Amino acid sequence: MALTKEERKILEDIRESQTEQRTVLLGIPDTDDRGLVGEVKDIKMNVSALGSSHGKLKRNFWLLVGTLVGSGIISSSIYGLLNGG
After folding, report:
1. Nearest CA to 74 among 83, 60, 85, 64?
2. φ, ψ for residue 84, nearest 5 deg
3. What residues have CB less than 8 Å from 80, skipping those under 6 apart?
4. pLDDT tens digits, residue range 27-77?
5. Quick check: 85 pLDDT over 80?
6. How far apart are CA 55 and CA 1, in angstroms?
């Protein structure tokens, strides 16, 4: 089954389009361009690192609040303010 000129042109256009899409998604081989897939991986790593540091900050904050309440510093301060202190 031989292809007509029109069919060959359509196939060439499809191949070009696929190559362009692949380049956008995966980047250009042997260069620093990693495409959209690489950008998403970088964003995912940054979000993971940020989430980890946010979790530690939150934990440390509540640890501090618990320590201050347990030692009576916050409790006595609130009690003093409520009693016109």
Report:
1. 64
2. 80, 25
3. none
4. 988 889 889 998 999 988 888 877 778 888 888 999 998 888 788 877 788
5. no
6. 64
